[in-house]
Structures are given as C-alpha cells and as structure tokens.
Amino acid sequence: MANKNNNIVVVFDFDKTIIDVDSDNWVVDELGFTELFDQLLPTMPWNSLMDRMMKELHDHGKTIDEIKQVLRRIPIHPRVIPAIKSAHALGCELRIVSDANTFFIETIVEHLGIKKYFSEINTNPGLVDEQGRLRISPYHDFNKSSHGCPRCPPNMCKVRTIYDFNYMH
C-alpha cells in the first residue's frame, strides 16, 4: 500500500478524530438509550457496558440495519477525508488504532469510501452473533490480566498496539 520510498506510518484514532463524536455515545443517544446508559455507566467497565447496551438495543427490537443507519449519519469534519486521501497519495501507510469497535469503524469507513486507504485497523472486536445481536469485546482481555500501561484504558493499550510489545513496556 505505501510507497516503498516512504516509511511514514500515520496512525489515526477514530472517535473525535476521524469522526467528530464518540461512536459509542452516538449510537446509544441516537437510538434513545441514553438514560439506561447513564444509569449503568458507573457499574461496569466501558466494553462490558457497550456489550450490554447492544443487548438492550437488540432486546428492544433495534436491528443491525438500524445501527448501521445511525452510524452512516455520524458527523465528520469536511477536511478529514481529503486529509486521509492526501496522506495516502503521498505514500504514507495509514492505520487506525481506536478503542471503538470493528463493527462501528468498518461501517463508517466503508460508508465514507475510505476503508481502502487503511492498511490496518486495530480496535475492540465487534461482531454480529447468530441472533443478530452486536457483541462487543475488549481488545485486551482485562478480566484475565492487565496490559500494565497506566496511561491507557484497561481494554486497550494503544502504545502496546502501535509499537512492538517489548518496545515501550
């Protein structure tokens, strides 16, 4: 993907960087579940909360297509897509490292027509199960062990993801 004469890798966060809002909050708010989200927020880790919210959406009849429709309306700054295309055209390798989830990110970047510009997307798994419910899991299983970085949330160490595992930790 990148020009062989250029070893520049540009790493993008997703929420509040490629898009103008937090994708998790956007979906919850747009589908009318903010009150329940706010009640549950102090009681569980973020990824567990989002998995629970996807269960609640599913249990209340919200479909994967409705979630996709909401994601396709997400606000984005008008200069983001041209910046991504310009960096790619200059031979930079582009990656996303985010603690959103694969389902949200892939839905949005496909809709925006920019998925092909990214060589890699590292994020929390977000998969649709057999019942048609979106399941969200942590990138690092914080229930088994901590990734050990005091600067990052327990579900994903972005430093560890970007650099070699032995480089920073």
From TrEMBL:
Signal peptide: none
Residues at the active site: D13 (nucleophile), D15 (proton donor)
InterPro entries, per database record: HAD-like_sf (IPR036412), HAD_hydro_PyrdxlP_Pase-like (IPR006384), HAD_sf (IPR023214), Pase_PHOSPHO-typ (IPR016965)
Keywords, ordered alphabetically: Hydrolase, Magnesium, Metal-binding
Cofactor(s), names only, from the UniProt record: Mg(2+)
Presence of the UniProt keyword Repeat in the record: no
A GO term, aspect molecular function: metal ion binding
Binding positions for substrate per the UniProt entry: D24, D99
Entry binding sites for Mg(2+): D13, D15
Keyword Hydrolase: yes
Recorded superkingdom: Eukaryota
Protein name: Uncharacterized protein
